[in-house]
């Protein structure tokens, strides 16, 4: 298959070299039994484009796409641009049907688009027919064999099954084994036999591996900064140390115990630590929400991390103002930070993107960030709801107010801006309190995240990664 044999997606579209090879690999995979695979290309390399090119290689097919709510419109808009007919579900108590809200071409490839939550709640709607293929985007959501989503996907009949995720391992190798099992691949429990299967059924390319290949316009490497922060006030230091002392004491009391309930209690304690590290008022707000009898007064001062954010926003400006993404954890944190940023006069526009927004509201927020501006703009994103699927390459500065316990989610978040088409060097700032570094609990969680990230990279090093593998298979 040559480049000229690939379908033209739209008039001005031109494939990147790695996308040509990727589509060829997808095409060959669908000739296999079982048919399909796992696409683990790094964020920003065009997994969506490659999958839609595969759809366009054959007319009058029916492909089911299951994806997070945040990316449904992105898939739909790109598919329509490619000349693919798109349909969304319309489900009532009495009736279920697929409806197209655009130009419907009966003989064109058809993409049936549904979110994970709706798919989980209406599985019968998806199992009535056999699909040409099923595509699950951000498929690490299916990693757990016992999850409701994984069980639901296992009941859907499709000639080919595709799973898209840059991070197929969230906790252990069992995650990628489960995805391979959903395809229909028989995976042995022997770890030595896993790597050849990964090479056959997993495609994984990274920005680093493609930078020196002709025809690939990879973005500049991001610059990563770790800001270790001493407290900016004695009041915050005293409050933080007092509260963390109580939390750590409770943690140690649970440390030698086992059971799901204790694990949940530990998670709550860890979230309290994270709230404390961001801003004392975020912690106070959370405690009041869980215990209305709490009488602690509001925090009147600032916080060390918020002070650091304001300092970073004051950095010398280039010819054009920077656009900043700040990844947050909590709604209260986002609302408080939004007010402080607006009052600071350092920024022009502040946008909120979190799990409370509907699909249309999310589209409006992202569209507004694309509008031309002569001021510094800030997009506050809740990491859990905006760390995946979004194309934010018009931003060139990223701040994390605290670490997450899987490196996968943070890597995906950075990938929203560091992707093909990004011309600027993206600067990424990780804010860590100096006191946090001394906490064994926090260090334990961060070490776990790094261990999981290393395991994922080790397994993916055996995946198919380029044309040399393709030539080797032919020979």
TrEMBL record:
Gene3D superfamilies: P-loop containing nucleotide triphosphate hydrolases, Tandem AAA-ATPase domain. Residues 305-475 form the Helicase C-terminal domain. Residues 28-186 form the Helicase ATP-binding domain. InterPro entries: Helicase_ATP-bd, Helicase_C-like, P-loop_NTPase, SNF2-like_sf, SNF2/RAD54-like_C, SNF2_N, SNF2_RAD54_helicase_TF. Pfam families: Helicase_C, SNF2-rel_dom. One of its GO terms (molecular function) is ATP-dependent activity, acting on DNA. One of its GO terms (biological process) is DNA repair. Keywords: ATP-binding, Hydrolase, Nucleotide-binding. The keyword Hydrolase applies. One of its GO terms (cellular component) is nucleus. The keyword Hydrolase applies. PANTHER family: TRANSCRIPTION TERMINATION FACTOR 2-RELATED. This is Helicase. It comes from viral metagenome.
